Every structure is written in structure tokens, then in C-alpha cells.
Amino acid sequence: MAHDSGEWMSAQARVERARGLFQSGKLEEAASEMRRALATEPDRGDWHHNLAVTLDAMGRHGEALASYERAIELVPNHVHALLGAAQNALRAGHADRCVRLCERAVKVDSQLEPAYSLRILALGMLARYEDAEGVYFLAQQYLKEMPLCLAEMANVLAQQGKFDRAIWCYREAISQNPKVASVKTRLGVVLLRAGQTETAHQVLMQSLREQPGDSATLFALARALEGLGRISEAEEKYRRIVELEPANPAAHIRLGDIALRAGRLDEARAAYSLVITLGVRDVPVRLRLVEALTRLNLHQEAGRHLEELFGKSTPTANVQGVEDPTVALGAAGAALECGRPAVAIRILSAAVVHQATDERLWKKLVRAHYEAGDRLGARRASRRALALNRGCAQTLHNIALDAILHGELRRAWAAVRRGIKAHPTDHGLRRIRIRILLVLCRQIWGSCMKRLCTATTRGLRVMRLTQEQRRAG
Asked: How far apart are CA 464 and CA 471, in angstroms?
């Protein structure tokens, strides 16, 4: 684009001024000056790149991506623009585009380590683990030291549960460059996942000394302290995170969990309620709040949360968050305690879809159906429970009680005999057997008395008739 010398010098001066403003931290003014310069010279790819870098620093990543892409259109081999666009494409969730941009960048500069490491990260996000490892080995051919690639490869290996190899990669990255951001923290997290809690604690302590106040490191250290049984120290770290980041939901959840386990129910209730206020709607968090409310005997409030989570508006097949049997059993138990057996049935019916062979779920479902007055549903659930464990004392106990209540003594007796055969010392079943025998005794006694009364009545009638006949004769 042709411009007179004065206009060009004015645009160049604005760019220089923008650089000075950027270095002074005046990002908004720097971006404004760059835009004014580009209004005069819109085909300068390097200036579009400078604007993109400024926008990135301001956190306006969407606008930055557009500027990087414009820079690439004008200067296709602008390696830093390619790298910046790749980073922002990944932030926007476009991992495939990130991979393609990184491939273009390394064709321009085969020793550009960030392009390899970013590509490994993107492939890991796409679950293309073999391709990520291929890029890692490709980088080894061009780079003598590659701490960024080692760190990202460690992340990919950790995703796959290959903790030993991930730990080696993290340690190698640290040995090549101890200042690579957050690598020691990530090493500590993987050591925790691998069960090496004491080593993780040591690594995380060192990481915290190097970057005091880092919330991610504090959180990982607190988890390590929990694993070592040092709960009060862990709680102190979580509280420190909350001081630094009052809206950190993960720290509030952990504080709530510690309070719940310690029986500090009001404190747990406050922590979980705050997490929900912060916008976290995870089912496990709300169920822990329900547990705290139930233990506080606030059944109405607990029931309201359960109805919101598992109410009739959601089809049973779509009930989420109860795939874990322990979670489902806890939620169903709370629902029963709150007097909502129908909610318990919905929870357990959804859970058995995922864990059809878990006997505990079927046993609890039997009880829920009985409490809801649904005998047909209880019988179906009982059959499934007994198919998994033919001598299940609890299920047979429930069947026998229901049969007694409805006068089906033969069915009750059969269930008790079957249960006592499997569990000869079960006191509950023995008590039910005595109860059945007492009911039978009452029935036999009543029958005998009825027959005796009938015979006595007939005898009296015969005597009366005989006396009348004698008088008439």
C-alpha cells in the first residue's frame, strides 16, 4: 500500500510508542497505538503479531487469535505468529488446528521446542497418545535438551496411568531446567497418584519454597498431608488457599469433607452451601451437603435438595452422578431417612443400570420399595438380590416381614427357613421365626376355641331340644 513518507513515519512512531507502553505495562494504550498504526499500514504482518501479543497479555485471547491469523496470512512463515495462533487455538478448544499450526512452525524452525511441546499437549488432549509419543521422539532428533517436551510427555503418560515413566520424564525435565513452570508441582501430583505419598510431600514442599503462595502447589501439598494422616496441617493449607483465592471451590470442598468426617456438621454444611453458591452443581457435592443436613436432622431441607437432584422431571435413565455404588447408597440412605422412598427408588434404579451385580444396591432397593408400599417392585428387586446371593439374610428378612404383614405365613416361613439354613446364628431371622410360630399358635388356638365354641353351642341346642321333647311327651 502506497503512503507518503510522513504517514509511514507516523505509523512507525506509533509502533515504537506501543512497544514502550507494552514494556511499561500499559497494555490498553499499547493496543490502541498498534491499531492506529495498522489503520495506516494494514498489511504489516509483524505489526499484527505485535498487536496479538499485546491482546494475549491482556487476556483477550479470542481477539489475539484473529490477529495472529491475520499475521500468518500476511507472513506465512512467521514462526512466532504460528506458535501464538497454536496456543490460542488450543485455549479455544481447537486441538486439531493447534497440531496443524505447530507442524507448520517446526517446518520453518526445526529447533523450536515450544512447537513440539504444544503439539504433544494437543495430541494428548485428543487422546492420540501414540502420535504424541512420536512427536516426542521426533523432537529428540533435533533438540539436545527438551525440558518442555519432557514435561508435556510426562503429562500424557500420567493421563494413561503410566506413572513410572511419567515420573522419570518429570525428573529429567527438572534436571535439564529446574525453572520450568509448575513441573515440580505436577511431579508431586503424579507421585501422589502413584501412592508415593512421602516422596510427593518432599517434592511439593520444595516446590512451595520456590513459589510460595502458589495455590496449585498448596492444594497438592494439602492432599499429600491428608494422605499422611496429618489432617490439621492439610486443613491449614486449604484455609491458606481460601485466603488467597476466596472463590476456590476445590479448597472449600476439601474443607467441607474434613469437617464432615470430624463431625463438625454446621461447618461442613456452610462449606458445601458456599460451593453451590459459587456455581458448582456437581452431584457428589450436593449429596455431601444432604448427608450433613440429614445428620443435623434437617430432613426437610435435605429432602428438598434430593428432590431437585432426582425429582420426577428427569427420566430415571438420565439420572447422573450415582454411577459410584457408594455415592448411590449414601444418597438412597439419606432419602429413606428423610421419608422419601420414591427418591431412593429413582437413585437406586439408576445405579443398578451401571452396577447390576452389586448386591448392596439391590438390597437397598428392596427396602425402598417396601417403604414406598410397592410390593411388586420389592419382589422383583428381591429376586435380583437373591440371584446374586441366594442366602442373603437381609433380603430374606425383608421378604419374611412383608409376608407376615400380609398374612402370607407359608411364604414367610419359607424365607426364614432358607435364611436360617444359610445363617444359623442370625438373631433377626430367629426372632422372625418365633414371631411366625406365635402367629401360628394364635391361629391354631383361635381355631380350636372357635371349634370348641361351635361344639358347645351345638351341644346346648341338642340338650334344649331334648328337654323340650320330653316335656311335650
From this structure: 11
Element (H, E) at 163: helix 163-176
Contact indicator for 329, 360 with CB cutoff of 8 Å: yes
Contact 155, 121 (CB under 8 A): yes
Cα–Cα distances in angstroms (integers) from residue 421 to residues 382, 390, 427, in the given order: 18, 11, 13
Q: Which fold has domain 181-271?
A: 1.25.40
- Which grid cell is 1? 500500500
- How far CA 280 is from CA of 247, 267, 284, 306, in Å, comes to 11, 18, 10, 16
Average pLDDT per block of 10 residues along the chain, 473 residues long: 51 88 91 90 91 92 92 93 94 93 94 95 95 95 94 95 95 92 92 95 93 92 95 96 94 95 94 91 86 91 86 60 80 88 88 86 88 86 83 80 79 80 81 80 77 78 76 68
Rounded-to-integer distance, Cα 380 and Cα 400, Å? 15
Domain ranges of the chain: 181-271
Measure CA 123 to chain center: 24
451 within 8 A of 416, measured Cβ to Cβ: no
DSSP state, residue 317: G
Q: pTM above 0.85?
A: no
Strand ranges (E), 95-142? none
Helix, strand and coil content of the chain, in percent to the nearest 5, comes to 80, 0, 20
- Contact (CB, 8 A) for 224 and 204: yes
Q: Which amino acid is at 432?
A: I
Asked if residues 432 and 412 have their Cβ atoms less than 8 Å apart, the reply is yes
135 alpha carbon, distance to own chain's centre: 32
SS3 for 423?
coil
